[in-house]
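queue> holo job accepted (fe (ii) ion)
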Amino acid sequence: MNVDQTALLLELEPVVATNLDRHLSLAKEWFPHEYVPWSEGRTFDGLLNGEPWAPTDSAIPDVARTALIVNLLTEDNLPSYHHEIASLFGREGAWGNWVHRWTAEEGRHGIALRDYLTVTRTVDPIALERARMVHMQAGYATYHPDEMMHSIAYVAFQELATRISHRNTGKATGDPIAEQLLARVAADENLHMVFYRNLLAAAFDLDADHAMRAVTDVVSHFQMPGANIEGFQRKALSIALAGIYDLRQHKDEVLAPVLRQWNVFGRTDLGPEGEKAREELAAHMDGLEIQASRFEEKREARRQRQQNR
Ligand SMILES: [Fe+2]
Ligand SMILES: [Fe+2]
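queue> job finished
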């Protein structure tokens, strides 16, 4: 880590402390066990000679099951995320307190989702466990290691992306219990987003050009945290076709509102480097708009074809 990074850590420490206090005053305590319909559970085959899992055990649509698996595997990789942010933000002071608090909250998400999926027999528990092993052994590494500004910008977008993804997955299940659980998780992700968004807003005030460059780089290379899940491309396409998380939502519900909060396109404090980065970002957003519209047209045409069949 170079001096700039260390200076930035120190400069942002009071902002972290203030926003951690804010977070703690807003975060609601909740209990995973209350969100799971335990009496619906049945012993599985294997050691205890129960009933094997069958796809007909659950009425939840296939694409919602796919999204639930992606969301859970993403949450499961928490040890890798913890490693990344603890390495970057450190374990001391307000930064350390945030890192550990955040990790504890994220841990709840995986617990709650797995308990729900196992008890309700929504997904094959053997396939799920094997997928978890593969995914966690692949690990997760940030795209911009040792870059504080980039990492903060990334997590601001990523927390909002997981919020939208959890919320829409809940709706797609058609199960009020799953929807309630995923709305609860999504509310946590939203608070995480606000924390990081406020942090980068403060970073903008410290060094607008650097923050602007970070935002442009992160938006241009954005990948979901679960992008290295086995078969992710295929899964992401079906999730996008179902409207659970697509490019339109990514642009309009994740990128745009955060960029607006930082007043990225209205700032008057940028130097030539910052201006250059902002122009790149604007061009990228225009490109995304075209891609998102194209995808929507194709999806609509596909829907029409299926209807006429
Ligand atoms: Fe989470
Ligand atoms: Fe989160």
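queue> The CA atoms of residues 19 and 195 lie 6 Å apart.
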